[in-house]
Design a protein that fits this description.
By secondary structure, this protein is α+β, with helices and mostly antiparallel strands. The chain has two helices and four strands; from the N terminus they run βαββαβ.
Length: 83
């Protein structure tokens, strides 16, 4: 079963557009970008990631998203299915 997470990103001042563009193009084994939005408020960019499993999602965030130039801090919210 695939997992989905929303990555809330704080960027360096003036880097939101560059971070959004870089993440929209990124690839990581077992994970894919479903959406990237530049937003207003306490975060600068919100990314919806989908992955094959939780480990792939976590690795994509720590090994790819957080290493994008201009990313200052991330907060991840996992999507859950409530029955």
């Amino acid at each position: 079963m695939a997992v989905r997470g929303y990555v809330l990103i704080e960027t360096d001042v003036g880097k939101a557009k560059a971070v959004s563009s870089a993440i929209a193009e990124f690839t990581y084994p077992g994970a894919r970008v479903a959406a990237v939005d530049t937003v207003t408020g306490p975060y600068d960019v919100i990314v919806q990631l989908e992955a094959d499993d939780l480990d792939s999602l976590g690795n994509a965030i720590t090994e790819a998203v957080q290493k994008v130039s201009g990313v200052q801090r991330t907060t991840t919210c996992l999507a859950v299915r409530l029955a």
